Amino acid sequence: MSEILDRNEVPAHVSSVRMLDCSGDYFVDRLAGPWIRLGAWNHNPAVDRDNVADEIMRQCVLIPSEAFALLFDKLRQVGILNGLDRPGGTVYSSGRDKEYIYFPFHQFAFPFTNVIGEPLVFVHANITSAGLFVNPDLWMSLQLEERTAGNGIWWDPRRAMDVLIQRVSADNLHTVDIRADYLLRYLQMRQMSLLIGHYRQLQLFHPSQGAIDAFVKEDLVVGSPESGTKAFFENWGLRRDDFYRGDYLQRRLHLWIEIKPPAIDIENPWEVPPSFDTHDFTLPTKFGQVAPARWRRFRDEDDCEFAGTTCDFMDAIYFRQEVLTKYEVTSGFEVKDNGSVSNIGYWSLTRSTSRIGNELLTLAIGDFAEGVPFEEWPHWEQYAVEPPSEYSLRAIHQEIPIPKSVNSLLRALQQMNAAFSEMANGIGLRSSTPLWRGSLDSLAGRQLKWVYPASAGDDEFIKRATLTSTLFLDGLQPSPMREFLNVFGMRFHESFEKTRSPLGSRKLLQRTALAAAVIAVIQPKRSKVPSLVKAAEGKGAGRIEADLERELLALNTQIREEFSPLAFFVRFTTSRWASSSSQQKGVGACGG
Q: Of 41, 78, 39, which is closest to residue 60 (Cα–Cα)?
């Protein structure tokens, strides 16, 4: 698309003073980039380091698609849009007849014309605050949802992307931006043009003599109805602020931009066409490249041709498991252990989906065609791979999928709970608190199941180690272990050092396991358990036969070896936390 204004029509002197050059507003494509600005406002801007005050105001209104030509001669100062936030009524007189007409906020009568527009984004001032207001019809028509009430970000949960963003910058610039493709879709649905009124005032205070000489005092108008643009430049010469800021040069730009609606398919006006040719989109199968769109219904296109070859509905296609990462990190999506994906309430890919080891995801090509919406196909295409050989599949199948490993950990912890409960019941202890009460629905549990990319570096290992430690330790309950140990003797839950102190949850678990092993193997009287455990830990001072002492020490060694992975995770996490804390303190000290 061409630039908003033709460079050949804008005199060079408009850009002769750098601080008063606003050519970046109009020497750009009107739909350049993925985003377009619908609104902007920074009332009473401060003077910057270049002695420039830069005031911006942008509002937009929907107009009938043929109305721009009718309005062209009346469009000068953008200030005519300053009434967009003022609903009200008026009385029309015709002789003795009078008629009262009320204009709600969603109607705007352009002065001295018969054109009625519909405000879309505009400056709205009420009693307590002022800012940009977005017509709710915009996000309601596009089926957007606000991420958090009042945060000004509306997203499309079906595509998991932010679409409409309202923000206020540090320098108090209010803006409203929308993705260009969504705006065009909205205009297509409304079959109305968008008229953007963009106002820019630049004031250069204490200008140099060179800037004064280069500035040309001349108002000019550029644009035409056919181009869908009109620019009115007010180039004022040297002026004086008698109050406090001194002499200044001033330029005002009033820029009008029309964005026309795309044509609509009247036979199926609600269909959103994909951004690619679905008939040419193919995925690799064992038979060659196949177009999954073969299994999608197309209106009046039953006889259309598809690229590639053909195969059966249930023939397998393969993807790298990294294809799931997008959905794992995005709210509104659920990724199950077998690789199934659900965008809750919108779409799902749940049939025939399975993981192969930790590298591949496989499913039937027909299920892909019916389950995944068109807008997601390019994402999946990035991760599609050729069907692996039988030899490769056998090798990959040897890997235990990460979700399966995490589930095995959960089952082991549940077995630990059951064993502890049985042991406690055996000594007459009735505890209602389980030894471990964590959950895979916790943040750590969910993230442990995420795809582990083949290209992951040390950071990913560090993250997984931390999550594993967090999942276990956060769910470990010290109170039932202390209660269990104290049945055998007071302060049995404390260390055997001279300065006795309560054991932490991990060492409590290790002490409990050692006590259970001593009871099971040695079968002593209950009163002897603490002294035997103390001897097993190498702290005993009593008279114990040498062979019994060796047996106890061997039990302790066995328990320590079995607990070594847990000890590694705890030491690892603790050292990471300590290192992070010391770095933060160092930064704080330097900053202070």
A: 39
pTM to 2 decimal places: 0.70
Number of alpha carbons in the 13 Å side-chain half-sphere of residue 434: 12
Helix, strand, coil % over all residues of the chain, rounded to 5: 35, 25, 35
DSSP code per residue over 222-250: EEETTTTEEEEEEEEEEEEETTTTEEEEE
Inter-residue contact 87 to 104 (CB < 8 Å): yes
- How confident is the model over 55-107, as pLDDT tens digits? 999 999 999 999 999 999 999 999 999 888 888 888 888 888 898 988 888 89
Structure tokens at 234: 């007010």
Better pLDDT: 544 or 413? 413
Q: Tell me the backbone φ, ψ of residue 268, rounded to 5 degrees.
A: -150, 70
CA–CA gap between residue 418 and residue 326 (Å, rounded): 38
- Joined together, the tokens standing for residue 274 give 């994909």
Gap between the Cα atoms of 346 and 557, Å rounded = 55
Instruction: For residue 478, give Cα distances in angstroms to 74, 435, 484, 499.
Output: 78, 8, 10, 20
Name which of 185, 93, 186 is nearest 134 in CA terms: 186
Helix (H, G, I), strand (E, B) or coil at 483: helix
Choose the weakest-confidence range: 268-282, 414-428, 574-588. Answer: 574-588
Alpha-helical (H) ranges within 132-208 are 136-141, 180-190
Give phi and psi for 461, each to the nearest 5: -65, -45
The answer to whether the CB of 251 falls within 8 A of the CB of 235 is: yes
Sign, Cα dihedral of 118, 124, 125, 128: positive
Bridge partners of 239, per DSSP, are 248
Q: How far is CA 368 from the centre of its chain?
A: 24
Alpha-carbon gap, residue 282 to 292, rounded angstroms: 7
Cα–Cα dist 513/524, whole Å: 16
440 three-state secondary structure: coil
Q: Alpha-carbon distance 41 to 34, whole Å?
A: 21
Radius of gyration of the chain from Cα atoms? 36
Indicate the average pLDDT of the chain: 88
What is the residue whose two structure tokens read 């690799």?
Answer: 284
Model pLDDT for residues 202-256, shown as the tens digit of each residue: 999 999 999 999 999 999 999 999 999 999 999 988 887 656 678 899 999 999 9
Query: Which alpha helices (DSSP H) does 233-362 contain, by range?
Result: 325-328
Distances (CA, A) of 258 to 70, 229, 297, 541: 13, 6, 36, 92
Does 584 or 438 have the greater pLDDT score?
Answer: 438
Helix (H) or strand (E) holding 41: strand 35-41
